[in-house]
Specification:
By secondary structure, the chain is mainly alpha-helical. Helices cover 64% and strands 7% of the residues.
Length: 169
């Protein structure tokens, strides 16, 4: 058992980050190998814009579950690459509607087959291991548990309970 496995929940975030970084690095290697100038971190925005003609930054941030500033920063980076554009919404001048540019749409046609290949490869990989098949349902359950509970408060309560002076009778 390696260090990370032996520390259990103490390193859950670190393990998930390591797994995510390794997965995204592999996906980015595929894009690079295929000669496609795309970064896996752009996937949520491209996916949502492939399903919707236009979305506001607020809608994007809510659907990809990141802060508005994080979504805005991602959109700014994609604008610099001329993959998306934004325009003021006709109904509400405060909202910026994001759409794919022609370059973004062309890139989308290149990456759609990669997405299919990723899904197929991951399905094959996971199907060979009963425990791995539980990963996505387990992540969903953990996300739900985090939404329903306040982990920081639970940790603080455990600290308070364990730090009470011992009673001497």
């Amino acid at each position: 058992m390696n260090l990370y496995q032996s520390l259990g929940y103490l390193v859950l975030g670190s393990r998930l980050r390591r797994l995510s970084e390794a997965f995204l690095a592999e996906i980015n290697r595929v894009y690079q190998k295929e000669g496609i100038d795309f970064d896996a971190s752009w996937f949520p925005v491209f996916y949502l814009l492939s399903k919707n003609e236009a979305l506001s930054i607020k809608e994007l941030s809510e659907q990809i579950e990141v802060s508005h500033p994080a979504a805005s920063q991602l959109i700014t980076n994609l604008k610099k690459r001329e993959l998306v554009t934004s325009a003021t919404c006709n109904d509400d001048g405060r909202r910026q509607l994001v759409t794919l540019t022609d370059s973004g749409k062309k890139l989308l046609t290149q990456i759609l087959p990669v997405w299919d290949a990723i899904s197929a490869a991951m399905t094959t990989l996971v199907e060979s291991d009963d425990t791995a098949q539980q990963l996505l349902p387990a992540i969903t359950a953990l996300e739900s548990a985090f939404r329903q509970a306040n982990l920081a408060d639970a940790i603080s309560q455990n600290l308070a309970n364990n730090l009470k002076p011992a009673r001497h009778e």
